[in-house]
Every structure is written in C-alpha cells, then in structure tokens.
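Posted in: Protein Modeling Q&A

I'm a second-year student putting together a small comparison for a lab meeting, and my supervisor asked me to include a predicted structure for Galactokinase. I've never done this before, so apologies if this is the wrong subforum. The sequence is pasted below exactly as I got it from our records. If anyone can share the structure token output, I'd also love a short note on what stands out.
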Amino acid sequence: MIDQLKQDFRNFFGQESQYSFFAPGRVNLIGEHIDYNGGLVMPCAVTFGTHLLVAPNAAGKLRFRSINFAETAEIGLQPSYRKEGTLWFNYPIGVINYFTEYGKSPQGLDMLFYGNVPIASGLSSSASIEVVTAYALNELFKAGFTKLDLVKMAKRVENEFIGLNSGIMDQFSVAFGEAGKALKLNCENLDYEAVDCNLGDHVLAIINTNKPRKLAESKYNERVSECRRALKSLQTALPIENLCDIGTATFNLHAHLIEDSLVRHRARHVVEENDRVKLAAKALSENRLEEFGRLMYASHASLKDLYEVSGKELDTIVEFCLTRADVTGARMTGAGFGGCAIALVKAASFEDFSQAVSAWYTEKIGYAPSVYSSLIGDGVRSTNNRETNDAASTDKNLVVA
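Accepted answer (user: helix_wrangler)
Welcome! Here is the predicted structure, written out as tokens:
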C-alpha cells in the first residue's frame, strides 16, 4: 500500500515523497460523553487510520491532496489561516494555523492523505488527521513540541478552528495509544494508565451503522451545554469543578438541586459512567471479561435512556448482541447520533456473527452495516522505511467527523 501511495504522490505533485507518517483512529471501550466533564475514559487505538506522505516544494505553497476526496487545496503561505466551509483539508490547515501562531511557520509543502477508517463512523479520524499532521510538522521542522503539546494543539484545532466542543480523549488516544492496551485517561489532569487489555479468545468487533454522523451539526454541543447547567446547579452546594468530581452516592444526595429532569438525567449518566470506567479498568486488568461485558451493556443503556445519544440503528445492533451467547458485551462507541457500535465476540465465531448481525440489521433498518475486527494498535509514528501495523485496507473511507 505504501508503494502505491508513493506513486500517487508522484502523480499528484510531480516529485518524490520524502517522509511518511501514520496515526490511528480510536474506539472508546467505555466512558462516553464524560471527557468534557473531567472524567475517566478508556479508549484504545485501532489498526485503521490516516497515512500522510510529505515533501517540501519550491513553490512556497501548501498543497493538499487526498486519495479519499476529490477536493484539493493550494494555499500561499500566510500569517494566519481560516476555515473554508466543511471541507476535509480544514483539519490540516487548522494545525498549520497554530504552528504559525506559535512561531513555527512551515515552508511550502506537498501533502497527500489517505485513510482507511470507515466513513462517518465515529472512530475519530478528524483527530487522526490533526495528530498525524502535527506530528509530521514537528518532525520535519524540528519544532521541539512534546507529544502532549501536539495533542493539546490538535484539540485547539477541533474546538476553535473547526468549532466542535469536544474533549481531549480522541487526540490523546491517537497519539499515546499502545498495542494491546487500553488507556485509562483522566481528562481533567491528563494522568493516564495503560491497562492490559487481554481479550483472550475474543476479538473487538466494530459494527458501522453506515448512518453518517455529522457531529459538528448534531446535538453534541447541546449536551455539553446541558452538563454545564447541571454542574452550575450542583455547585450551589458542592465545591466541585467538574461533574465527575463526585461519585454516584454523592450525586444521589444532591440530584434534587438540578430542577430540570432532563438535565438531571444527563448529569446522572455522566457521574455513573465515570464510576463504570473505574470498575471496567479493574475488570480488564484482572481478566474478568464477563464483568467488563456487563459494564459495556450498562453503558449503552445509560447512553440510550439518560443521555439520549444512541438511536434506532445503534440500539438494533446492541439488541442483537444481547441474543448471542458468543458476544460478551456491546455498546455504542463515540459520540453517537449514528456511527459505530463495538462488541466483544468470540474469535472462532466472528464470521458467523458478522453475517448474522448484518442480516438482522438489514431486516430491521433497510440497509446493511459494515462489520470489522481490529487489533489494539500503537499511536502516531513515522513510517519512513518501515511498515505500519494497520489493517492495510484498500478501502477509501477516510472519516472527517
């Protein structure tokens, strides 16, 4: 695949690529919609992601191409850059904008992107694009940023340049992922622990609903606002800075302070989900997959009933998983409103599971899902003169969501 991308680079830009990089997508195993509430999350890097090939050019321009999208851009070097509509290249332009702001102005560059994450699936390729771009620029221009600096910069792109009020989990897991481990990440202080994630005789199934998830246009920002309202109500009696500063028992004693029942439901999900992450990390580290699976199902029920970010498509997949003895746990993953569900499936029956869930979903929804299995992979890295551990898919399905 890398050889083909190098040929594509020559065809697009009329020169050889000089550097290559890869950043994965991610799934969140448990801990949803609490990253922006100071909570614990437990993501892992997957083996799908974004490749970036780069070479300096003498034209003094930033030239962007993608194997996945027809839209291209050619931009002169500027003191600052602005978002252009909803086009895919806003993500790397946003990164370049902040490099320039920090006094690390890039020279002219030719940049070719290719991703094999399923389209609009919620596997976080926007973070993958941001992080691979930031990592590449840092390496090329010896800018001296730490990996954590790059994570924070990529989050700024998402929040300020793109305009999505998301937390730091996506960028962090894309950068710091470790093969065979989940990251128990404290989103408030960025302390993290790499938790052994021995799936034993199971595989991680990723089931894409194929319902596009346009997150920046969804109710995501509305949920952020509801959580802030809940926090403000609780702060009248509790010295807390985030909803996840308290546990379920304390929340139960003070829930009456949140007068709006809908906002109270949102806060209850956040607090209880944070507690589930703690239990899940312990279960995984002790190889208790059955307990972890139970927590996955409980997480999905809360996201469906209290946080209301699931939907018919995701619920249909989880309902099917509950009927299967070879599935240990399942839940929606990502922000919801479409996207993907994940399931722990016995490896020996994965193919049967894939066919059966596809048939069930197609009958209920009217079109087929896409089903994948993934390993837990490493984070962002240079791929010069080496192979990546990605799935080597030739699907042209880069996510921008």
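A couple of things worth pointing out for your meeting: The chain is about 40% helix and 20% strand. The CA atoms of residues 21 and 383 lie 5 Å apart.
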